Known about the structure:
By secondary structure, the protein is α/β, with parallel strands linked by helices. It has a single domain, classed as Uracil-DNA glycosylase-like domain (Uracil-DNA Glycosylase, subunit E), CATH 3.40.470. Helices cover 45% and strands 10% of the residues. It contains 12 helices and 6 strands. It has helices spanning 3-23, 51-54, 65-74, 79-88, 94-97, 121-126, 133-143, 176-193, 203-210, 216-219, 237-242, 247-263; strands spanning 105-106, 112-116, 158-162, 197-201, 224-226, 229-234. Strands 1-3-2-4-6-5 form a 6-stranded mixed beta sheet, with helices on both faces. It is elongated and about 100 Å long. The N and C termini lie far apart (104 Å). The relative contact order is 0.11.
Amino acid sequence: MNLQSGWQSEFEIARACLEWQVEMGVDEAICDAPIDRYALDPAPAAKTPAKAAADPPAPTAEIDPVADAESLAATAHDLDSLAAALADYSHCELKLGARNLVFSDGRAGARVMIVGEAPGREEDLRGRPFVGEAGQLLDRMFAAIDMARDHPDIARALYITNILPWRPPQNRDPSPEERAMMRPFVLRHIELAAPDILVLMGRISASTLLGTNDGITKIRGQWRDVAGRPALPMLHPAYLLRNPAAKREAWADLLDLQARLRTTQ
Length: 265
């Protein structure tokens, strides 16, 4: 072993350590007086009770997101104020990752109100529900019974919204907590839009508004009641894109809807 090179290496290490201590603010190598590390610590001085200990702070009441949603939705007197109330709602973290609040599309006052599930990528970008591939199929489905979101005849127009106004990450299903938060807003939306008939488009919409865990393929086509109005659960267009054979059931539901509209004119 080369003793000189070893010594130089130890010297460089020691110097580097010393420079580091200087950079950290060390300015003394030893204290002014020796310290007996084995001596017992003196008895600690008695602590004076703090006033805060005598008067503990009052516990903070937890905010119920659903109750807050109900209160906020109830203050909305028209659709514009409901959209503003949704934008102000602070308990749903989905809004932090969404580009736009997707409130509605179509004609307010239409006889048929479609309630979908949640915005997808295209809906989030454009701020309108059902504008992607599934939305294009939706338009073709209702065009087959002479209805459209922009139909000049209000009796044949559609009004469209979703359970959630913000896109979930990666288009995942809305959580039960998210759906519970948004339900009061959707119910108030239905009251303000005042349609004759509701179409519950897809599993999430049907389960949220009907309070059932039954699958959409089981309950589709079965008329129910939501907010005092007849409601028809239907297969979501996205489901039909994945399962084209199910379009036969969707067509039967559209014809049933058309017949119901004729009998309630």
